[in-house]
Amino acid sequence: MGAERRGSIGLVLLVAVVLILAAAGLMLVGHGQAEPYVLALLALLGMIGVFSLFAAAAGILQIAGRDKGSPVLRAIADGAVDGILVTDPAGRVVYANAAYRALTDAVGTDDVRPVERVFLGDPEVSEAIYRLVKAAREGRRLQEEVRIVGPRGEPARWLRMRVRPLGESGRDARTAVWSVADVTRDRDRNETAFQGLQHAIDYLDHAPAGFFSVDAAGHIGYLNATLAGWLDYDLAQIGSGGLKLADIVPGESAALFARLASEPGDVKTAVLDLDLKTRGGKALPVRLHHKVAFAADGTPGASRTLVLNRASDDGADAQRAAEVRFIRFFHNTPLAIATVDKSGRIVRTNALAARLFRGKREAEGSSILDVINTAGRAAIEGAIAQAARGQADIAPIDAALSADADRTARNPAMAGENDRWARIYVTPVSDAPGEREAAIVYALDTTEQRKLQGDFNQAQKMESVGELAGGMAHDFKNLLNIILLATDFLLTTHRPTDPSFQDIMQIKNTANRAAGLVQQLLAFARKQTLLPQVLDLGEALSEFAVMLRRMIGEKVTLEVLRSRDLWPAKVDGNQFQQVVLNLAVNAGHAMPDGGKLTIRTANVTAEEARGFTYKGMPAADYVLIEVTDTGTGIAPEDIDKIFLPFFSTKEVGKGTGLGLATVYGIIKQTGGFVYPESQLGKGTTFRIFLPRYVASAEEKAAPQAPAAAINGAQAAAGDDTGQGTILLVEDEKDLRGLNARGLTSRGYTVLQAGNGVEAIEVLEKHDGNIDLVVSDVVMPEMDGPALLKELRRRRPDLKIVFVSGYAEEAFANNRPEGQHKFLAKPFSLKTLVATVKETMAS
Questions:
Q1: Rounded CA separation 802/824 (Å)
Q2: Shortest CA distance to 530 belongs to which of 808, 811, 821, 816?
Q3: What is the 3-state secondary structure (H, E, C) of 124-169?
Q4: Distant-in-sequence, close-in-space partners of 352: CB < 8 Å, separation ≥ 6
Q5: Using alpha carbons only, what angle is made at residue 797 by residues 795 and 801, rounded to the nearest 5 degrees?
């Protein structure tokens, strides 16, 4: 029985003393005069009685000894298995049930003690009791499990103690409810189970077979000590997720694990013969019993894989050793091997075939036709049928392996986008009549070879187109040169007031425009004349940005992001501006409704260059120019054609198709690289990599031209007349005649030759009287470089000017040593005369 709340004895004695004093006082007053006082005292006592009755009825006043709690709740608390104790804010016991008294060995209700007094003498639990008492005083919940040592050799007990406040506020929040439960049996059962688990783990770790578990991501969650010993791994060094399947399964063999598939909720078991890889890289032949359970959504769970060591003991089992060698050959061969039945369904595969034939998650059991592109299925199906009939001589087949055969089946138009290619050989299984296998399929992955062949063919195509464009441009420049020289002569005989003067100017302007078009063809062919100089491309772009904003229109926002400390590059400034202009104009056309054009510069180190996946670009230091727009993008089928001359996706009359071809040619001729990246609806990025310029020792030590020489050359530029004998060598008769006429009109004596052989004859005939040779580079019989070699052999001091529609670098490999001038076609008469006079004066 719990402790009851007792009445106050002092209050009872006080009431009794007051009543005795009142009676004594009435006796002293006298009988005659005491009556009013007696009535008043009785009235007062009556009022107190009535008030007490109402207070008791209302619950304001409670009678001592009355039970405060509900009888049902009190019965539940008294009969509870766990000990229950209630203490007031001062720590005094308010209530304790029978279970608590039994746990604390209390004799009666007066012997009930609070928790801290019961276990006061036990030092092992004093800290836990202190924390519980502190929580009770602070109105907090707390739980502790303590071990109580029994007296006189009795076994120790485990007690679970809890404390909580009775209520949430007021006096109830400071009143603590304690519960004490004996959990010794639970602890004993847990300890027994833990020891059993330890024994099971020890048995599994030291079993004569290996065991591991791997999840769907390839992380090994468990590895027993036996397998760790075989693979030379220290279990103490294998943390969670620290070891992966690829660390112990070499090469393509890991694909054998990923191929397993089953229905949701099913369990699949496979037997695999392969080699595991030790930490030192050695091969360990094993047989795996690989078991995987699949969840309701088809997701594979962690495997249970048993590993049997198949290493031969000193060659005692020759048959097993031969089988191990065959398995190694089978799984490690660079050929994908699969056996199929008559319908093409795969019976078994090696490791490489499990990866290569990945049209479905599991290769075995699916049809090999499912992983062949639609165009090649008929040929493979026919080859399998021939093999099933026993035919041995079956020609190999080149077929595409679809990366997603299901997608290709649903939409045949998408076939080929991500296909891999293989050369497939089919042979019959002649020694297994009646078996499921009807043919053996060997596949050699030829994807990379086909890509290389495609890249080579594209390069050859670009080179052929460039040669054609360069040859046409060279011949066309000769014709334009004739037109320009003829118009120069006509302009000297016509005044601006003449009616035909404007017509002549129109002809000259049109010829100059045609020359610009030819220049773009030469830029693509990389045979134009460049005047490279060392530039800070960031500064060049900033100066060029004003014109770019006008060219791209008001709807497009231009942002130029310059990198600090940008490396210099050696480029032709005008041609570099042409590159940026062409890209910006194309970007503007791709953003008809407006957008953003960003031009960014940056330094790219050799280490960073290795991180790019662009083909053909060696690792070196580059200056990067990145041009990005937010336009419509380029279709995937057009991305490989955009640098071809005259290829354009614009409407007729809105572009020649030479803009990007010019960009490609200028960048290539400068020694750089350009690569496009685009997504439809998101925009396009062109990345241009130009080699970083580093001055050589000769360039640093090269003397600057004296100011007097520069001033003298500028002064001489005003007078275009001269004297001397010039040998003019040009295979184009009309152009040769106009050049000779122009030089003769300026005071020079001109000798003419149609090719190098004629030039040698003229030189020998007028030996000593020729001051300068002006020669074309490309001529029949003997070209310019061969002529230069013969001229220098006869006259080492003879001055020479080469003219050509090609760039000077186009014949640099055939040019002999020695100084000479170079003049690019087409040129005006004024330019020709100025070059001749400057060369003769040098």
A1: 8
A2: 808
A3: CCHHHHHHHHHHHHHCCCEEEEEEECCHHHCCCEEEEEEEEECCCC
A4: 252, 255, 331, 333, 334, 335, 336, 337
A5: 95
Name the token pair of 378.
């008929």
Q: Are 628 and 601 in contact (CB under 8 A)?
A: no
Which amino acid is it at 599?
I
- Short-list 541, 528, 534, CA closest to 571: 534
Ramachandran area for residue 687 (φ above 0: left; ψ -120 to 50: alpha; else beta): beta
Contact 803, 776 (CB under 8 A): yes
- Reported as a single tens digit per residue, the pLDDT across 426-438 is 888 865 545 678 8
Please answer whether residues 238 and 229 qualify as being in contact, where contact means their C-beta atoms are separated by less than 8 angstroms.
no
Per-position b or e across 59-71, b if 16+ CB within 10 A of its CB: eeeeeeeeeeeee
Tokens of 146: 């303590």
Q: Which of 357, 344, 210 is nearest to 289 (CA)?
A: 210
Instruction: Output the CA–CA distances (angstroms, integers) from residue 456 to 438, 453, 615, 645, in the order listed.
Output: 39, 5, 12, 18
pLDDT digits (tens, 9 = 90+) for 329-381: 666 677 788 888 888 888 877 777 777 765 444 445 578 888 888 888 888 88
Cα dihedral 293, 298, 299, 300, rounded to 10, equals: 30
Residue 448 backbone dihedrals phi, psi, to 5 degrees: -65, -40
DSSP string for residues in 420-485? EEEEEEEEE-TT-TTSS--EEEEEEE-HHHHHHHHHHHHHHHHHHHHHHHHHHHHHHHHHHHHHHH
3-state secondary structure of 316: coil
pTM listed for this prediction: 0.39
Express each pLDDT in 293-311 by its tens digit.
888 777 788 888 888 887 7
- Structure token digits, residue 294: 């699949």
**C-alpha to C-alpha distance for 123 and 448, rounded to whole angstroms:** 77
Q: Is 674 helix (H, G, I), strand (E, B) or coil?
A: strand
pLDDT tier at 410, thresholds 50, 70, 90: very low
Sign of the torsion angle spanned by Cα atoms 392, 398, 404, 408: negative
Closest among 348, 428, 415, 346 to 384, alpha carbons compared? 428
What is the Cα–Cα distance from 218 to 833, expressed in whole angstroms? 78
**Is the sign of the CA dihedral 568, 573, 576, 580 positive or negative?**
positive
